[in-house]
Design brief:
single chain, 421 residues, alpha+beta, Beta-Lactamase, Heat Shock Protein 90, five-stranded mixed sheet, 8 helices, 46% helix, 18% strand, elongated, disordered N terminus
Length: 421
Amino acid sequence: MTSFGREPGHALLGPYQEGTVLGLTSPERANALLLGIIEAASSGPHVEPLAAAVARLITDATATDVCFVHVLDDTDRSLTLAGATPPFDQYVGEIQLPIGSGVAGWVASHREPAVIVERKEEDPRYMPIPALRGTDYTSMASVPMESGPSGLVGVLNVHTVRRRQFTDRDLQLLGVIGRLVAGALHQARMHRKLEARERAHERFAEQVIGAQEAERRRLAGDIHDGISQRLVTLSYHLDAAGHSITAEPELAVEQLALARDLVNLTLDEARAAIGGLRPPVLDDLGLAGGLASLARSVPHFEIELELDDDRLPEHVEIALYRIAQECLQNITKHARATLARVRFRVHRGTAWLEVIDDGVGFDVQPAPSVDPHSPGYGMQSMAERAELVGGRLRVISRRGSGTTIIATVPLPATDADPEDA
């Protein structure tokens, strides 16, 4: 217990002072709190059970009425209520605060404690959340949960019904608790991210296999219904020409002309089938040439091009080409646009692809659409293509203001922008 800077036999952070909200009146309570935190941290690798246990321990140890444990989400841009004492535990996972919003968001942004003794509605940092019934509580204290190795993990809030004057010792105690649980919560967050990534990889593997099988069926159908049937018809024309070449030369010439037309048409279909597997233009002209060729194949709206000539690894060029192809197909089907811009550049070791249109736009949903007629339906496959090559996809759109799709892929050092050398 000496690691907390006190001598044996003294209470954690000093004796409880009259009029102080928090405090541990004996070494026994300090030991009980530490043992409770250790037990909670070792109970399992999940964020919510750990946060719930911490909330209960804090209210018991500090004589406060309610505790909220807000934990950074996986984007590190907002806080999610991960643990709370009853009756507010029913809102775990449902309350979110952007960093900088509300008292907890302010604490996360500034990395320093905040105290409101009374009239919290008059504090500019306070943001009422009806579900948490802030008006039922007079005083509150909020401290960041952080440690050296893990950095900021979340924020602890405690509230009291009666007016309380939080002291420096009170905040020190909450800070110590926050540091004690920060490491365990950080590990739980990493475990959650790993589980989510594994689930995403499993879903993606299933989708890739499904897409491969669907593509094989499509190609088999194209070959059977198109190329194979035309070759059969071609053989009939050649047979007819062979039988009539001496007796009816004019008929033979007619049959050979029809055969020639079928040969040309079959060649076109074969090239289209090959292009569906691997666009040959990428081999000859690279991504810039492929995007230019792709733009020429879209007659429904004007397309402006800003394309660098940089060559990329083959798998990156294919991924970005397919993303651009899906974007232009979505614009054609859904956007009712008159103008689109396709930009490709390599800057500071990253490949950038932007497809922008002036169409009707749509409301970006947090989850991918399951409606194949929705403009958001192809977003998941595009995002997964980008992630498969180590990149990411960003979608910016709202109704009436067009859509911007940005794909970024970090490149190996040998493929980085020469300006960075």
